[in-house]
Amino acid sequence: MLERFLEQQPAVTATLLDNKLRKGGSEIRTLTEGDLSAAEQVLSLLAPLKAATTLMCEEKQPTVSIIAPLRKKLLTHFEYTPDDTPLIKDMKRVMAEDLRERYVNEEPFLLRAAALDLRFKKLPFLSDERRNQTFECIAEEAAQLKEQRLQNEPEVQAQETPLHAQMCDERETKSMEETPPVSKKTKVLDDLFGDSFSTEDQCARKKTSKELANDEIRKYRDIASLSLGGKVLQWWKAHQAEFPLLADLAQTYLCIPGTSVPSERVFSTAGDIVRSERSVLSSEHVDQLIFLKKNLSKCTIESIEL
Predict the structure, then answer these.
(1) Residue 53 placed within a domain
(2) What is the pLDDT of residue 294?
(3) Please, what is the end-to-end C-alpha distance for the chain in angstroms?
(4) Cα dist. 261→63, 71, 289 in Å?
(5) What is the SS3 assignment for the chain?
(6) Structure pTM?
(7) Would you write out the chain's pLDDT as a tens digit for each of its 306 residues?
(8) Looking at the structure, do residues 221 and 288 belong to the same domain, yes or no?
(9) Are 135 and 163 in a shared domain?
(10) One domain, residues 159 and 63
(11) Residue 210 belongs to what domain range?
(12) Residue 58 phi/psi, 5° resolution?
């Protein structure tokens, strides 16, 4: 609103000087030069907030990983400068105090989400100790997730259909038939020197989940960051084989939207569809119409005959 007023301020001033408005003799109150200057300063202060709001309201990518860097950026923006007027200082103080009280309990979670986002993984706003601690927590959580899935594998196998189990047995039998038998000499060498001269693959298999997770963390921190406009989820999909543990954990974190705006838009869409003229729509048809509206492009929707 302030931005639009400042854009149209010359036209507003010219209109207020019109003699037709002054014929009644009533006093017309206008903004002074000090008021206009204050409005420009307030507009400059609020500009990053507008940009942050627009960014957080997007639906194309989940944005939970951007909350921690964005919060730090806004707190830096609210720091005092020598040119600040008393009004701007008061506004910065109030907004900074309010923002510092938010996301305090969720901060560790938000930092891990930002670390798993290749655009923000450097976490430059943290100290070295805090940054390393964040990645240690990620490694522990990735290892726990792997152990949990390994424990659940027997339950999944127990629920397999008889046909699937039969196919697995046939593949295992065929594999055993194709594998040549181990010679006596190889077995003796294995018993004598297996611990000291194991192959690289065998050593890798003996690593614990925590060690594998730490290896992936080191490799992940060494690669170059993604550009700010890059597609984080697509990157993780393309590098899932390279970082299997971290990719699973990234899916858990980065699928979370940063705000409730997308769900609120779904309610608004439902309000546009269910009106008094269409009150006899069944719940099933309402769900279908909302789904089509939110998932099909406009050109496709116009061509569909509902």
Answers:
(1) yes
(2) 80
(3) 40
(4) 11, 18, 20
(5) CHHHHHHCHHHHHHHHCCHHHHCCCCCCCCCCHHHHHHHHHHHHHHHHHHHHHHHHCCCCCCCHHHHHHHHHHHHHHCCCCCCCCHHHHHHHHHHHHHHHCCCCCCHHHHHHHHHCCCCCCCCCCCCHHHHHHHHHHHHHHHHHHHHHHHHHHHHHHHCCCHHHHHHHHHHHHHHHHHCCCCCHHHHHHHHHHCCCCCCHHHHHHHCCHHHHHHHHHHHHHHCCCCCCCCCHHHHHHHCCCCCHHHHHHHHHHHCCCCCCHHHHHHHHHHHHHCCHHHCCCCHHHHHHHHHHHHHCCHHHHHHCCC
(6) 0.69
(7) 888 988 998 888 888 777 776 666 666 677 788 888 899 999 999 999 998 888 888 777 778 899 999 999 999 999 999 989 999 999 999 999 999 998 888 899 999 999 999 999 999 999 999 999 999 999 999 988 888 887 877 654 555 455 555 655 665 555 545 555 656 656 666 666 566 555 555 544 577 888 888 999 999 999 999 888 888 888 999 999 999 999 999 988 988 888 888 888 888 888 888 888 888 889 899 899 988 888 776 545 445 544
(8) no
(9) yes
(10) no
(11) 128-172+204-254
(12) -75, 155
- Domain-embedded: residue 228: yes
Same domain flag for 160 and 236 = yes
Q: Is 104 part of a structural domain of the chain?
A: yes
Residues 54 and 98 in one domain: yes
Per the domain annotation, does 51 fall within a domain?
Answer: yes
